[in-house]
Write a structure and sequence with these properties.
Blueprint (H helix, E strand, L loop, with lengths): L3 E6 L4 H14 L1 H5 L4 E6 L5 H8 L4 E7 L2 E2 L2 E3 L5 E4 L12 E5 L7 H7 L4 E5 L18 H18 L4 H20 L3 H13 E5 L10 E3 L6 E5 L5 E9 L5 E6 L5 E8 L10 E3 L6 E5 L5 E11 L2 E8 L7 E2 L6 E5 L5 E9 L5 E6 L5 E8 L10 E3 L6 E5 L5 E11 L2 E8 L1
Parallel strand pairs: 1-2, 1-3, 3-7, 7-8, 10-12, 19-21
Antiparallel strand pairs: 4-5, 5-6, 8-9, 11-18, 12-17, 13-16, 13-18, 14-15, 14-17, 20-27, 21-26, 22-25, 22-27, 23-24, 23-26
Length: 427
């Protein structure tokens, strides 16, 4: 199913820089990447009216999450450029969509107007959204005070992406604000009262049952956890792991809530059903594990089903990982040697922050053809990578933006020739 989420993120002064950091590097963008929706992004200087309106008119866009300054009748993007203003936008930009604007005052007039023009649901703030932060901290993600405000607001995006209906998303977000308020009340009354203010002015308009389709088959990536949510007994979510090789040891691991009973069904090359499957895990808990050894070549379809209860879960498909390779530090120059054609060396850069621009450069010997392969979360291989540099020259450069928080694996490979090379990874 080809459905799209549009994420709009301003980033041009202190306030938007802090919000951008939490949403793009931690809470919203990385979570959207886990889902099987096409993700359209207008970050920073791309958050302008011309691009925004054209994206909103795309027929596959079903959810819009935006961060920028606002007023009662308008929502702005980069450098305060108006993206939506009451009476000045095409109603088709809102029709059929769920919309979340992390933007002051827009719940007064703009939010109701979007719903009147056909939006299925709108989330936003009737008064100014206020957050507190700690002075002197360079990286916003290191500030636990600012973090709590953006954690609460990002609950909307994460639960909508999980498929929950708008009414439940609204209630759960209000509840999280309330929990954080009570947590801070005895420790920092200023933070607590600011959280209570945001709680009190948070609004939702439109259809309480509006939700994103849940019949999407989400794609799994090896050795990477994917989250989901089952909203009631009998609910199911479907996944697929594509391109499994023959003869491997493959394990599917499901972890769910302690008071529920979720089951796991696996079928090769077609979707499983409760009575048609190749493998299943069906204990009386929500934690299931299925190991398949040896595997057949093909696509493995997985269904998570609630036999009883509801709640969030994670699922992971894993195979024994190849050696990680030598750990290297950012900015450090690495000197290595490939002895012959098809020789390879593996490296890993651990703990890369999300939302950054990661550069990997390779300087190889004259007359050779060395390539680089880079992958997030698991070792890079010639047939399994996120990005590669393979120009036919000894020197290669690749850029990963925005990064996903975690480890990045690099493989240097000789397509032709041998000799010494220099490798550097830096932000």
């Amino acid at each position: 199913m080809s459905l799209s989420i549009l994420e709009v993120e301003s980033n041009y002064e202190d306030v938007t820089y802090i919000g951008y950091s939490f949403r793009v590097r931690k809470y919203v963008y990385p979570y959207f990447l886990e889902k099987d929706y096409d993700l359209l992004t207008l970050f920073g200087n791309d958050a302008i009216r011309e691009k925004f309106s054209s994206y909103c008119l795309l027929p596959d866009v079903i959810y819009i999450s935006g961060f920028g300054h606002g007023y009662d009748n308008l929502f702005t993007g980069q450098h305060g450029e108006v993206l939506w203003k009451v009476g000045s936008y095409d109603p088709r930009e809102a029709q059929g969509k769920i919309i979340h604007l992390m933007s002051c005052l827009t719940a007064r007039r703009l939010g109701p107007d979007l719903v009147d023009k056909g939006a299925r649901a709108y989330f936003g703030y009737e008064e100014e959204f206020i957050f507190m932060h700690t002075l002197g901290i360079t990286d916003p993600l290191e500030d636990p005070i600012a973090d709590v405000f953006f954690e609460c607001n990002s609950q909307v995006d994460r639960l909508i992406a999980d498929g929950l209906p708008a009414g439940r998303v609204y209630d759960a977000t209000k509840e999280l604000f309330r929990e954080k308020y009570e947590d801070f009340l005895s420790r920092d009354s200023d933070v607590a009262m600011t959280l209570l203010h945001d709680h009190d002015c948070f609004r939702m308009y439109g259809d309480q049952e509006a939700s994103l389709p849940t019949d999407v088959t989400n794609e799994l990536k090896l050795n990477t956890s994917v989250s989901g949510n089952l909203s009631k007994t009998g609910d199911s979510r479907d996944f697929v792991l594509k391109g499994v090789k023959q003869g491997e040891k493959l394990t599917f691991t499901l972890n769910g809530p302690g008071d529920s009973d979720f089951d796991l069904y696996v079928r090769i090359n077609q979707e499983p059903e409760l009575r048609k499957f190749d493998y299943r895990g069906y204990t009386e808990s929500s934690n299931e594990e299925i190991t398949i050894e040896p595997t057949e070549e093909g696509d493995y379809y997985v269904r998570v089903h609630s036999y009883h209860g509801m709640g969030p879960f994670t699922i992971k498909a894993s195979v024994p990982m190849a050696p990680e390779g030598e750990e290297i530090e950012l900015e450090k120059l690495i000197i290595g040697t490939l002895e012959s054609k098809d020789d390879s060396k593996k490296y890993v850069v651990k703990g890369v922050d999300g939302g950054k621009e990661l550069f990997v450069t390779l300087d190889g010997p004259d007359g050779a053809d060395f390539d680089i392969y880079v992958k997030s979360g698991s070792p890079a291989a010639l047939d399994d990578y996120d990005i590669r540099g393979y120009t036919g020259l000894p020197d290669e450069n690749v850029v990963i933006y925005p990064t996903i928080e975690g480890d990045y694996y690099i493989t240097v490979h000789s397509y032709r020739g041998s000799g010494e090379y220099k490798l550097r990874a830096f932000l």
